[in-house]
Design goal:
Helix 5 runs parallel beside helix 7 (175-186), helix 5 (128-145) packs across helix 9 and helix 7 (175-186) runs parallel beside helix 8. It is built from nine helices and seven strands. By secondary structure, the protein is an alpha/beta fold. It is globular, with a radius of gyration of 17 Å. Strands 3-2-1-4-6-5-7 form a seven-stranded mixed beta sheet, sandwiched between helices. Helix content is 38%, strand content 16%. The chain has one domain: Spore Coat Polysaccharide Biosynthesis Protein SpsA, Chain A, CATH 3.90.550. It has helices at residues 22-30, 47-50, 67-80, 100-109, 128-145, 161-164, 175-186, 212-230, 233-241, and strands at residues 9-15, 36-40, 57-60, 85-88, 113-121, 157-160, 191-198.
């Protein structure tokens, strides 16, 4: 499946020690779109061996550099290859490539927006610590954006071409994803629409690289700085918390886009 109205779309998968899930994740991605970029962030397990025979573009970091650098290098590669948009998804199996057609349908309806695969279905499956951390992040990052955003911590996102130009934002690790949201809305005037997806957590997944206390603290400090930088602090808070996030569910789960 590809979509001429959106131009050329690639799937971007950052991966660090994902040998348990990466092959299934990549194969499911290839079943949706033919162009897949995997950024291996210095894995020390058999991540690369698991996908060595698959037709994907692989970027390899000699040592771990963090998710921000993985996304940056994936964006740069997508731009170099002439893609018009990227769908990012994590390599640990939490995201289902079958949700991507629904995200692309949302992107067609809202062409000047980022699209988030928002984990708002079966939210009770999320560990308590992660759920609380995500709620804090949603509260703060929405304030930073000046609009309400559902599931600001989801790594499954559609980035239109304009957003790819934010590749050099000065933010590292998981903060980079927050920085992308805030700058896309504040500097580029893009919107944010969320497509509901299932919350998938399982003992089969490796332990998350996200550390709720450390990473939410870093994200919060960054976001506070952005709220102050953009000004109109009270107005931004009111705009971001006086209404519900934009949520759009174009197709039933698992249905194919036409």
């Amino acid at each position: 499946m590809n979509d001429s109205s959106l131009g050329r779309v690639a799937i971007l998968i950052p991966a660090l020690n994902e040998e348990l899930a990466i092959r299934q994740v990549v194969e499911s991605a290839l079943a949706v779109l033919p162009d897949v970029i995997v950024v291996d962030d210095g894995s020390t397990d058999a991540t690369l061996e698991q996908i060595a025979d698959l037709p994907v573009n692989v970027i390899r970091h000699a040592s771990p550099r963090g998710k921000g650098e993985s996304l940056r290098d994936g964006f740069r590669e997508a731009l170099r290859l002439g893609f018009d948009a990227v769908v990012a998804m994590d390599g640990d199996g939490q995201h289902d490539a079958a949700d991507i057609p629904r995200m692309l349908a949302a992107a067609r309806k809202y062409p000047d927006s980022l699209v988030i695969g928002a984990r708002i279905r079966t939210r009770e499956n999320q560990p308590n610590a992660r759920r609380r951390a995500n709620a804090v992040a949603d509260w703060g990052i929405s304030w930073g954006c000046g609009i309400p955003v559902a599931d600001t911590q989801s790594g499954q996102r559609y980035y239109p071409r304009k957003a790819l130009d934010l590749v050099d934002l000065p933010a590292q690790g998981f903060v980079f994803e927050a920085a992308l949201l805030i700058a896309a809305v504040r500097d580029l005037g893009l919107g944010v629409v969320s497509v509901p997806i299932d919350t998938r957590y399982s003992s089969e997944f490796r332990l998350s690289h996200f550390r709720p206390v450390r990473d939410v603290t870093l994200i919060t400090l960054y976001t506070i700085g952005q709220v102050i930088r953009y000004g109109h602090v009270v107005d931004s808070y009111r705009r971001s918390h006086s209404s519900n996030p934009l949520v759009f569910d174009p197709l039933p789960a698992g249905a194919e886009s036409t």
